[in-house]
Amino acid sequence: MLSVVAASLWVLLGCVVAALPLRWQIWPGVMLLLTAPLLIVLLAQDHGGWVAGFGVFAVVSMFRRPLRHGLGRMRMAMLGESGK
User: Fold this and answer.
1) Range of the domain at 61
2) pLDDT, mean over the chain
3) pLDDT tens sequence across 30-40
């Protein structure tokens, strides 16, 4: 049950971070994004792959714009390196 409590706390902290002004969201958001894989692994160990899959869906849904931006930057870096 610790994994469910930790995941619930993570969601509540995410709601608090979302209510902050944009300039104050960056560092707490990064910390939430870095802790998400650990929580998903804990959920998978305690409750199985389906629950972990829902956790992955929730994280991707919550961080869709930052993840899209990061993937775009990675793609541009890879294309820039291959063109040299």
Assistant:
1) 2-82
2) 89
3) 999 999 999 99
